[in-house]
């Protein structure tokens, strides 16, 4: 019995020393993340154009806060302080599931890479603080400029605490369904009806080279809700020019469209929208990938027996789905297709 | 108990046995006169592996000394035929033999094992106590365990033998020491960049025969290329060491105060203890062989691989052919210059034969003893042009004219020479770049393009360190149990380093760097001690002892260096030169310290019948390096111990040899920074009002309250010995908090000062240490087997950063970009890396931004920047589908967390076999060598060595699930940087089990050796550094920097095969 008592004492001493050392650990700081004072949004006013997917990146400086951080938009309100349910509700938006790389063989294949998901129209990326506006946002729901737009706060947090950034502004522009655009960004109306092509090297029938700014213009027109893109050419009297006259054009790789129909009045493709689908550089886009690029070419023998490589080129975006028609109008002179 | 006064002595255990023996004799009653016979025989030392004879052992009859054994351990006495002979020797168990008419009696004396605990003594706080009364955490390793394995640095031999003493032999450079830490790191500062980043070392304080030697001073590490890197502890050859004690908790180190914060290692050297002078020789020849090096592709294979890579991966076939044709070393395969298969590593490495010799003469007894030891070790490094030579002459003498007075003097002299090639010894940049050259290039010559090779081979780098230490120690017993004593020691060290770089390497003008330093230390300690006992029932029950001392230390260090450029030729190496300007001579004082410390300390100890022991220590330190406002530092320590085996109720347990609980608390300091940190730096300015102005250097704001680093330790321990010492266990758990770690802090420009030396960093180490020893065989068995295992688990936590910061990143500005992350609550030195989770097998695996439809990418939106199949999968931590700095994660701990070892000793007659292993677990290594070899694929038109891809799981075609990405896609390599150093792919588990050494001893039969006039001859064969069991893919998981980076410039650890001979005349 006595032995048991002392065994107990020894045991207690052991337990006590173990307890002593486990309690020491309690005083150690816990390994939590930290929030730095120098973490900051570098941009407080966001002006997306409605009808397009817009991403605002490089807008947050992490400073000495530890990653990962969590971001949340809170208190989204109109400029007058009323709630803005249109920006907190969820709407179906088209999201990419796989990368678009320009090698897709049909619209169905492209659409298989996208899907509809429900999102808020204006979101913050949960860990990077980047803002994004989905293309589904339109000026029927969203207050666009010249309205004073929306005001919101952002909560940044991690296990070390939270921090609020207040009174960030969202000032969307009205939709401009295509670029280059003839529409005024704020009022959404067009002071002009056309835009200029990106490049022209064509000699007119009257022997003068055509000027890209004044002699040739491009008109965008949306004819329906389909999935097509039509190119037309018209002369000074608005008579159609046969696209086949642009004989050197690389029709197969002109746009990322399918089922080309080429008549003597137009050339038409089935195309997935927006054009281009992403900014991934493909053979259908500019080098940076930010715009689709079409070049219509023909060659002729010019004065002095030289080969003149003629073209008219357009870099463009179309954000809204539909049956779009792009017409190249030669205003001052018809292009000269014949040899000299 | 006349002899109690000797307790204070350096070798009190000698006296214990004498006392014990005298007491035993006192009980003898009488003898019967019988017929006299002559008895002869030999006394052997049973504790040595080779069963040496024991000169100087006393033979007693009835307590009277009748003889002493001669130099061969033999004796001759004439006694009664039925007498009882008692053989005794200091430190050994006396043996009694009845004569019974025998005329030849051979005796083997052994160190008594069943009384091992009670009589083993521990020195701590400049006092020697029996282990029963020792309340602190300390481990003693006998010098015998360190024999037979030649080493420049003796401390490296302790690897795996002491739990909590973490030794990583991270360089094989001869004469350099590895990293030594006791109970985790005590400093978290990282300096340097890239592969040369190193952790501020916190080596323990070495106390050699009672005199502290600081190891963290000056240029003794070799990171800083300014001076030679010779450890002060390496001046003692292993053969001269009696024992080494490692003091781990603050209660043990409390009295070492002003520099004990990183732990203390006590080294005691051997003394003379034989009446008859003995000459001992021990020497060995050892072969250092080149270990496994890194594998590379050689010759034609390299060329074909590069050509195939370009043809298969370039943007177009024409471009590829053009690229090949424009690269002569690929297209011009018949050119003799490019048609080679040079194994570059072979030009740097070679096996070497080395030797070490030690001779000592010793003799004497308690009254007067002396020893003179002469030693030399000459070691050529396995890397060309490197080596280490040490000559040492150590002498000590003890004289005790009366029982009251004792004088001990010792003198250590050593000359150490070192050659470090073109590197600084620890690392060799030249070998790194040269060894990783393309195999197509021709072998090194004066005309070869690989200058680094020439540099490594022809640079003359000579370092010499002269070290002299003289110590005098006097003790006087004024009254009974009251002693005063004084230590005085002077150490002078002077080092020179000459580095001559020939003209061929420096645009036809040679370059000569010379460095010299001078360091002196004067140390004085005056102490008094008093011992008092209150008797209870006739035995000492209440025992008090008081110990107090004052300590004074003055150390001075100054280093000057000059770089002479524009030498005339390679022959003139003198004190040059007609340098073009002072600036180009680059000379000046590169290091200067002048430190004074003063301390007063006291220790009070009380025990009740040795059952309950309480120790109080208190020490007050004044340091000249601390700020004037920080004042004297007070370090208390208290420790208690309960020897529960001495309790009445446990006395019945025959199987319990000893058992105790220990608890301790204490603190220690170590000086921070230099005098400039506390007082600022001043220089003379222009005249103002006709008097010279004095200007304060504004780069550093004086910190008037600069504090020394302070370590506070709590320790709880438990010791157990069972079954007649067949099994013993020591367990310790500790909590060590290190405060006031120095760190330079930048100040805002508005203060007009650049920065301030600031002490606001703290870290905490806690852990558990186990040491288990088993002797499973019966003591009567001819085989003797001893198994020891040690295990230490250390957890380190960062507890405080300056100005309330919770985290900080040490930004590695080198290309390696391997940042160090400090976060409170985590281990201090976390790697901050990109997290690699494999390789994209197909393009579809690359994540896509749902908004933009773009794949995950690096940097700009160029088509080459998007990830695709064959690229590594890096975690996108912030989820923005762009890989950038913000995606790094905290990964891994560069410090070993679990260390230990297993040691086996098997003895059979005159044979003995010893096997030592050590292990390290939970350590992360960054394999920078492999990363750079893979990265070489990124540029097939520039020369560099390539790793054989067949050895690695490399992605080759879509669908491959691989560990390493596609190395052949060189077009995108510079953009994607798939083999960036700073990724977890190259962070590997550095756990290893290492076979440190296998030693075999054999003692030649004495009747054979005595024919040649030799008393005792033993031979030994030792193989060390034999190999590893590890998952690490590089050549050696131990041979990495203190921050766990494996680097081609690291000095590989040689395999060593030694054959040794020990002769005693």
From TrEMBL, chain A:
InterPro entries: DUF5007. It comes from the Bacteria. It holds the Pfam family DUF5007. This is DUF5007 domain-containing protein. It comes from Pedobacter frigiditerrae.
TrEMBL record, chain B:
Residues 418-437 are annotated as: Disordered. One of its GO terms (cellular component) is cell outer membrane. It is found in: Cell outer membrane. Residues 418-427 have a biased composition (Polar residues). Its main location: membrane. Keywords: Cell outer membrane, Membrane, Transmembrane, Transmembrane beta strand, Transport. PROSITE patterns: PROKAR_LIPOPROTEIN, TONB_DEPENDENT_REC_3. It comes from the Bacteria. It is a multi-pass membrane protein. InterPro entries: Beta-barrel_TonB_sf, CarboxyPept-like_regulatory, Plug_dom, Plug_dom_sf, TonB-dep_OMP_SusC/RagA, TonB-dep_OMP_SusC/RagA_CS, TonB-dep_rcpt-like. Pfam families: CarbopepD_reg_2, Plug. Residues 135-264 form the TonB-dependent receptor plug domain. NCBIfam families: OMP_RagA_SusC, SusC_RagA_signa. Belongs to the TonB-dependent receptor family. This is SusC/RagA family TonB-linked outer membrane protein. It comes from Pedobacter frigiditerrae.
């Amino acid at each position: 019995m006595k032995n048991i008592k002392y065994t107990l004492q020894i045991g207690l001493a052991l337990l006590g020393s173990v307890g002593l050392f486990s309690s020491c650990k309690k005083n150690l700081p816990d390994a939590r993340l930290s929030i730095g004072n120098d973490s900051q949004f570098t941009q407080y006013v966001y002006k997306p154009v409605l009808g397009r997917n817009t991403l605002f990146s490089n807008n947050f400086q992490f400073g000495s806060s530890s990653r990962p951080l969590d971001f949340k938009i809170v208190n989204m309100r109109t400029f007058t302080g009323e709630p803005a349910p249109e920006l907190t509700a969820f709407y179906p938006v088209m999201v990419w599931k796989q990368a678009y790389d320009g090698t897709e063989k049909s619209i169905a294949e492209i659409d298989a890479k996208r899907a509809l998901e429900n999102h808020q129209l204006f979101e913050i990326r949960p860990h990077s603080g980047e803002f994004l506006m989905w293309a589904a946002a339109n000026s029927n729901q969203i207050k666009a400029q010249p309205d004073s737009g929306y005001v919101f706060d952002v909560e940044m947090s991690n296990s070390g605490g939270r921090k609020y950034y207040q009174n960030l502004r969202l000032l969307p522009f009205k939709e401009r369904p295509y670029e280059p655009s003839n529409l005024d960004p704020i009022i959404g109306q067009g002071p002009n009806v056309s835009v200029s092509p990106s490049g022209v090297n064509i000699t007119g029938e009257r022997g003068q080279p055509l000027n890209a700014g004044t002699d040739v213009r491009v008109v965008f027109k949306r004819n329906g809700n389909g999935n097509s893109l039509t190119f037309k050419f018209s002369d000074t009297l608005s008579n159609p020019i046969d696209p086949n006259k642009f004989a050197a054009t690389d029709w197969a790789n002109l746009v990322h469209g399918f089922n080309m129909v080429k008549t003597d009045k137009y050339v038409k493709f089935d195309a997935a929208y927006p054009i281009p689908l992403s900014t991934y550089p493909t053979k259908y886009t500019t080098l940076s990938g930010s715009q689709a690029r079409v070049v219509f070419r023909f060659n002729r023998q010019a004065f002095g027996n030289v080969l003149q490589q003629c073209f008219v080129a357009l870099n463009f975006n179309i954000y809204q789905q539909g049956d779009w028609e792009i017409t190249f109008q030669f205003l001052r002179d018809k292009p000269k297709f014949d040899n000299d | 108990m006349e002899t109690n006064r000797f307790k204070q002595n350096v070798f009190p255990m000698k006296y214990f046995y004498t006392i014990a023996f005298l007491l035993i004799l006192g009980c003898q009653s009488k003898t019967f006169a019988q017929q006299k016979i002559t008895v002869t025989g030999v006394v052997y030392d049973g504790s040595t592996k080779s069963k040496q004879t024991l000169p100087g052992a006393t033979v007693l009859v009835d307590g009277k000394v009748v003889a002493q054994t001669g130099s061969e351990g033999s004796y001759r006495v004439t006694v009664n035929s039925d007498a009882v002979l008692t053989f005794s020797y200091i430190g050994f168990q006396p043996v009694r033999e009845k004569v019974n008419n025998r005329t030849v009696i051979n005796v083997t004396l052994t160190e008594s094992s069943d009384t091992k605990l009670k009589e083993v003594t521990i020195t701590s706080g400049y006092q020697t106590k029996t282990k029963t009364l020792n309340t602190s955490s300390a481990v003693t390793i006998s010098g015998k365990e360190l024999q037979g394995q030649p080493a420049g640095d003796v401390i490296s031999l302790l690897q795996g033998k002491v739990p909590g003493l973490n030794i990583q032999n991270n360089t094989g450079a001869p004469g350099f020491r590895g990293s030594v830490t006791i109970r985790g790191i005590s400093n978290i500062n990282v300096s340097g960049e890239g592969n040369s980043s190193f952790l501020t070392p916190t080596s323990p304080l070495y106390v050699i025969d009672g005199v502290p030697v600081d190891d963290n001073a000056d240029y003794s590490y070799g990171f800083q290329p300014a001076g030679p890197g010779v450890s002060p502890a390496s001046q003692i050859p292993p053969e001269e060491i009696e024992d080494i004690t490692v003091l781990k908790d603050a209660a043990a180190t409390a009295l070492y105060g002003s520099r004990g914060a990183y732990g203390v290692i006590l080294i005691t050297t051997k003394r003379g203890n034989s009446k008859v002078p003995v000459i001992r020789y021990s020497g060995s020849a050892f072969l250092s062989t080149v270990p496994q090096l890194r594998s590379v592709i050689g010759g034609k294979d390299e060329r074909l691989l590069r050509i195939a890579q370009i043809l298969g991966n370039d943007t177009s076939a024409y471009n590829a052919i053009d690229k090949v044709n424009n690269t002569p070393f690929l297209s011009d395969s018949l050119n003799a210059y490019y048609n080679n298969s040079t194994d570059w590593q072979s030009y740097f490495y070679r096996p070497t034969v080395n030797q070490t010799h030690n001779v000592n003469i010793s003799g004497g007894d308690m009254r007067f003893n002396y020893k003179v030891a002469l030693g030399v070790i000459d070691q050529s490094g396995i890397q060309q042009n490197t080596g280490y030579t040490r000559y040492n002459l150590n002498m000590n003498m003890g004289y005790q004219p009366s029982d009251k007075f004792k004088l001990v003097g010792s003198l250590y002299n050593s000359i150490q020479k070192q050659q470090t090639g073109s590197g600084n010894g620890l690392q060799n940049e030249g070998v790194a770049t040269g060894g990783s050259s393309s195999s197509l290039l021709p072998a090194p010559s004066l005309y070869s393009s690989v200058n680094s090779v020439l540099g490594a081979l022809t640079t003359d780098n000579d370092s010499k360190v002269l070290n002299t230490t003289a110590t005098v120690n006097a003790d006087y017993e004024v009254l009974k149990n009251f002693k005063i004593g004084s230590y005085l020691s002077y150490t002078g060290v002077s080092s020179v380093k000459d580095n001559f770089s020939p003209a061929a390497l420096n645009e036809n003008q040679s370059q000569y760097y010379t460095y010299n330093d001078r360091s002196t230390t004067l140390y004085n300690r005056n102490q008094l001690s008093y011992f008092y006992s209150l008797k209870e029932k006739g035995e000492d029950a209440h025992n008090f002892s008081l110990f107090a001392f004052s300590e004074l230390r003055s150390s001075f260090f100054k280093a000057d260096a000059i770089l002479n450029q524009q030498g005339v030729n390679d022959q003139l190496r003198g004190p040059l030169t007609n340098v073009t300007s002072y600036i180009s001579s680059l000379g000046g004082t590169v290091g200067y310290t002048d430190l004074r410390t003063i301390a007063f300390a006291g220790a009070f100890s009380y025990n009740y019948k040795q059952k309950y022991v309480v120790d109080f220590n208190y020490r007050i330190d004044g340091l000249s390096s601390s700020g004037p406002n920080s004042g004297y530092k007070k370090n208390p320590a208290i420790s208690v111990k309960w020897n529960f085996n001495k309790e009445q109720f446990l006395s019945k347990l025959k199987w319990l040899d000893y058992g105790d609980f220990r608890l301790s608390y204490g603190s220690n300091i170590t000086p921070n920074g230099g005098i400039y940190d506390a007082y600022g730096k001043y220089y003379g300015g222009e005249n103002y009002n006709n008097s010279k102005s004095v200007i304060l250097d504004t780069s550093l704001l004086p910190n008037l309250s600069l504090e020394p680093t302070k370590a506070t330790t709590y320790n709880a321990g438990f010791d157990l010995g069972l079954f007649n010492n067949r099994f013993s266990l020591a367990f310790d758990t500790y909590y060590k908090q290190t405060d006031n770690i120095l760190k330079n802090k930048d100040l805002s420009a508005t203060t007009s000062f650049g920065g301030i030396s600031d002490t606001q960093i703290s870290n905490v180490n806690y852990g558990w240490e186990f040491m288990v020893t088993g002797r499973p065989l019966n003591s009567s068995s001819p085989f003797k087997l001893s198994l020891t295992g040690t295990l230490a688990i250390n957890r380190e936590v960062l507890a405080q950063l300056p100005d309330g910061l919770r985290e900080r990143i040490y930004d590695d500005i080198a290309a390696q970009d391997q940042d160090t992350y400090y976060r409170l609550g985590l281990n201090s030195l976390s790697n901050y890396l990109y997290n690699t989770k494999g390789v994209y097998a197909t393009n579809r695996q690359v994540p896509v931004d749902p908004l933009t439809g773009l794949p995950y990418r690096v940097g700009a939106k160029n088509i080459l920047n998007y990830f695709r199949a064959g690229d590594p999968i890096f975690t996108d931590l912030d989820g923005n589908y762009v890989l950038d700095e913000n995606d790094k994660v905290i990964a891994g701990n560069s410090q070993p967390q679990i260390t230990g070892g297993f040691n086996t000793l098997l003895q059979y007659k005159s044979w003995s076999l010893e096997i030592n292993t050590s292990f390290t677990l939970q350590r992360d290594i960054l394999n920078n060598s492999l990363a750079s070899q893979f990265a070489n694929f990124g540029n097939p038109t520039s020369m560099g060595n390539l790793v054989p891809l067949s050895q690695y799981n490399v992605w080759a075609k879509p669908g491959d699930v691989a560990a390493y990405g596609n190395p052949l896609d060189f077009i995108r390599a510079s953009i994607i940087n798939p083999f960036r150093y700073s990724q977890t792919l190259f962070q590997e588990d550095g756990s290893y089990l290492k076979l440190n050494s296998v030693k075999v001893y054999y003692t030649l039969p004495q009747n054979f050796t005595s024919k040649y006039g030799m008393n005792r001859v033993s031979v030994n064969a030792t193989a060390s550094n034999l190999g590893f069991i590890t998952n690490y893919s590089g050549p050696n998981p131990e041979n990495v920097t203190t921050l766990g980076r494996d680097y081609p410039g690291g000095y590989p650890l040689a395999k060593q095969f030694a054959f040794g001979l020990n002769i005693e005349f």
